[in-house]
Amino acid sequence: MNPRHIHWKIVFLAALLLSSFPDWQQGVAQKSGSGRPIDLMIVLDNSCSMFPREMLIRGCSVFGSDPEFLRIKGANLFLARLGFGDENEVEYQVGVVSLGDEPELISPLKPLKDNRDRLAQQIANPAPQIATRIVPALQMAYAELQNPDTRKPGNLPAIVLITDGVPYPPEGQSETDIQNLVQGYPDIPIFFMLLRGAGSNLEEFDRYLKFWQKLQQLTEHVYVYVIENPAQIEETYNKIVALLQETIPSQANQVTPDKELLFYVSKYTSRVILTITYPSGVPGGKVQVIDPRGQVVQDYEPGVAHFLGDKNPVEVISISAPRLADEYKEQNWKIKSSWVATVFVDRVGAYTFEFLAPDAEPTDVRNVYRALSSKSPRQKLAVRFRLVSENGETVKEAQPIRLEVRLPDGTQARVPVSADLKPDAQGVYEVSFDLPTLYPYVGSEFGRFVFVFYAGAGAEAAGEQLPVTSAQLLVDVGPMPFVQLLNPARVECTPNSAAKVSVTIGDYQAIVPDTLAAVITSSVGEVRLDGDDGELRGDLTGLCQSLLSGMQCGEARQDEFVLKIEAELEAGYTFEPIQRTLPVEVRAAACAPEVTPTEATFVLPTAIPTSIPDSDGDGFIDTLDACPDLIGGRMFTGCPTPRWAWMAGGSGLLGFLLLWAAFIWPWIKVRTVAKPPDVYLLICQRNSPEAQVVSVRAAGMRRRHNRVTIGGDRRKADIFIPGLKPVEFVVVEKDEKILLTEPVRGEARAVFRQLAPEMTRTSNPEVKLWLAVKRSTLEKVQCT
Predict the structure, then answer these.
(1) pLDDT tens per residue, range 330-372
(2) What is the pLDDT of residue 23?
(3) Average pLDDT, the chain
(4) Using 50, 70 and 90 to split pLDDT, how confident is the model at 761?
């Protein structure tokens, strides 16, 4: 029966009764699917650099990284959101550690369901501390997650940590110390948020960030998030909780009393989770969620759960079936608020990814998979997958597929996927990648590619489609042994002849010494190959003789041998054994022919021709020699090489050397030994309607220069910008830095940075240049 039709008196009495129970605020339990529950330790940086100036204590010299305590607000979001509405919500646990001079266990691991308010109250008023001792704080968090008295064995242990810079003091907290500590707990995922603080030393910050990003590439359990400003803290916390809870996160949206928020629910959405926060110091407002028929979602309706605490200012509303019925999907819903509020609209998809190739296994974090074997950059990587619904059925209706990749150097890139990509009759999709095209530097050493797959169109936000589901596939790529040469490619087994085989293994240096094993097998036995330095040999004669035994003369047949190669790789990377089939042709001896008598035949003797003289001895007989008295060559029919031929040859050689010096060698040089810097410029001109992003490397390769010039003369400048001096800047690489320098004195004007763009002025006040290592960084810059 629809609750709206119940008599108002009954509604009043029911509401009065239910309000007397403290758990009513958390609503009706969800019946949606739930994953592995989590034991989570939240580590909060309370060093003085995170506090506003008015809270400084003696000894603090840096302040202001998080003056509005958004890290506390983000932690409250975690406390309110984690596990909320899941069937196994009671299994979730959270503890909190304060990072500072000495770590403080603010709260040990305890059940989260009835402590979302109490934990928020415990972290609400942090006090500043001078040091940033990250190692002791992590050690305390790990110890709590190993404590058998509090840890639940079936839960996934995890750590979330936010900090704004390098550890201080450095003693006992070196990068090696941190790496050894983190790698010592491979079964505990750590989500590391690094906030670019107000007083951060940029070079020191970038070095520390690269350390964590490298650690992320080396492991499966480290997740790194860079926060450029405090406003991104809340959104980053939401991204992490979405990854742990298998939801698709959205960007923050603002709702005001005068501005309602519309959000779309597709037919492939099984659950919607709204996370609502308010500005600091605001007690909160009243939020209403309205379905497409204009009905307000009520807490007492089945499929609805609502957290609204007294101490935790974050509000969470979860809506699933039966309230999220099919008749309300493929339409817009609406959110209204009596006060200014920030809303995250996260969705749980009705299907998930299942990877079929390469062979992969799930990691501890949901929807993150790892390829079981490493891959070679010499071969295309083919990924086959399907989308599986909650009831285990394959979704055969074509879904839009998007793909991103995090490259081994930590940069993100979009991977083009055909808009016409469709599944086959069994619902299986296939995409393939040429890895060197994605990352030209792959092959010399191992690196990890993190492919992020998105499927479906669940909604649209900021002009971009939000997917229904996503998954990550971790693939290690590097130098892999391969069969460079197999001789012969086809084995012939015949009587009274030896059958030898040789195999040359490419990229042999990637193999751990003495672990290479190669064997050729057949239906009659096997032969192991021996050799050194990747050159293997074997004698297959015995196998051939076994195949020939019992065959009749003149008989022939086809067979096959199988070559299998196994090895161990350096640094513990996995190697998928190589298996090749060798076709074999088996031919028995020919049958002896019948002997028949023959008649003798008389053959006349061959006449001996008369010899013709070669007077000059140059190999041309006199009748064919154009110069019978002069020694000459074949090109000029026995005559000496004429002077004009020597002059023509010298001119041709000189022309080639000039062409080599002016064009060929510079072209080769900028593509091999002296590549132009791989950085980008954003050119902002006052009278130009659009900003222009220019690749410095592309400009240098086009002009065959590795020192790329910028200026207003088309002939002198590799990058032409009207209104500048003929040559105003030169881009050079020096001491592992890429600099923008003056052309004459060579003084550095600016540095190309990895994360943040840098602006430099020119001799023309109407032209400004922005510099960055990544193109994506410049795309966010607005020319004003």
Answers:
(1) 999 999 999 999 999 999 999 999 999 999 999 989 899 999 9
(2) 35
(3) 85
(4) confident
- Average pLDDT of 557-573? 88
Predicted structure pTM score: 0.64
With CA atoms as reference, report the closest residue to 382 among 357, 353, 418: 357
Q: How far apart are CA 716 and CA 757, in angstroms?
A: 26
Q: What number of other Cβ atoms are within 10 A of residue 245's Cβ?
A: 21
Residues of the chain above pLDDT 90, percent: 46
At 105 the three-state DSSP class reads: strand
What distance in Å separates the CA atoms of residue 300 and residue 286, rounded to the nearest whole number? 16
Asked if residue 229 and residue 83 are part of one domain, the reply reads yes
Model confidence at 3, pLDDT cuts 50, 70, 90, reads very low
**377 vs 396: CA distance, rounded Å:** 32
Looking at the structure, tell me whether residues 523 and 470 fall in a common domain. Answer: no
Tokens 């020191």 found at: 204
Beta bridge partners of 528: 519
CB 48 within 8 A of CB 129: yes
Q: Is residue 527 part of a domain?
A: yes
The answer to whether residues 82 and 275 touch, using CB atoms and an 8 Å cutoff, is: no
Instruction: Answer yes or no: do 241 and 276 share one domain.
Output: no
What's 134's DSSP letter? H
The tally of domains found in the chain comes to 6
Task: Categorize the per-residue pLDDT at 620 as very low, low, confident or very high, splitting at 50, 70 and 90.
Answer: low
Going by their DSSP bridges, the two strands 261-265 and 331-337 should be labelled as antiparallel
In sequence order, what are the residues at sequence separation of 6 or more whose Cβ sits closer than 8 angstroms to the Cβ of residue 320? 30, 31, 32, 85, 270, 271, 272, 303, 348
CA 165, 170, 174, 180 torsion-angle sign: negative
Q: Any bridge partners for residue 455, and if so which?
A: 401, 469
Separation of alpha carbons 486 and 582, rounded Å: 9
Alpha carbon distance 215, 182 (integer Å): 9
H helical segments located in 300-420: none
Residue type, position 765, single letter:
P
Question: How would DSSP label each residue in 26-82?
Answer: G-SPP-S-----EEEEEEEE-BGGGS-GGG--TT-----SSTT-HHHHHHHHHHHHT
Q: Among 696, 694, 701, which Cα is nearest to 671's?
A: 701
State the Cα–Cα distance between residues 214 and 754, nearest whole angstrom.
14
Is 271 a domain residue? yes
Sheet containing strand 692-695, edge to edge, reads 692-695, 680-685, 767-772, 758-761
Average pLDDT of the residues in 393-405? 95
Q: Which of 477, 512, 547 is the C-terminal boundary of a domain? A: 477
Paired residues of 584 in beta bridges? 491, 559
Longest CA span, the chain: 136
User: Is 696 domain-assigned?
Assistant: yes
**163 & 289 share domain:** no
Q: Are residues 464 and 333 in the same domain?
A: no
Buried b / exposed e over 275-303, threshold 16 CB at 10 Å, is bbbbeeeeebbebebbbeeeeebebebeb
Domain span at 272: 3-21+250-349
241 and 115, same structural domain? yes
Cβ atoms 383, 430 nearer than 8 A: yes
The answer to whether the beta carbons of residues 28 and 302 sit under 8 Å apart is: yes
Q: How far apart are CA 747 and CA 711, in angstroms?
A: 16
716 within a domain of the structure (yes/no): yes
Residue 21's φ and ψ, nearest 5 degrees, are: -95, 125
Between CA 63 and CA 67, with CA 65 as vertex, the angle to 5 degrees is: 85
When computed from its CA atoms, the radius of gyration of the chain, rounded to whole angstroms, is 37
| CATH code of residue 355 | 2.60.40.10
How confident is the model over 368-396, as pLDDT tens digits?
A: 999 998 888 888 899 999 999 989 999 99
Answer whether residue 14 shows pLDDT above 50: no
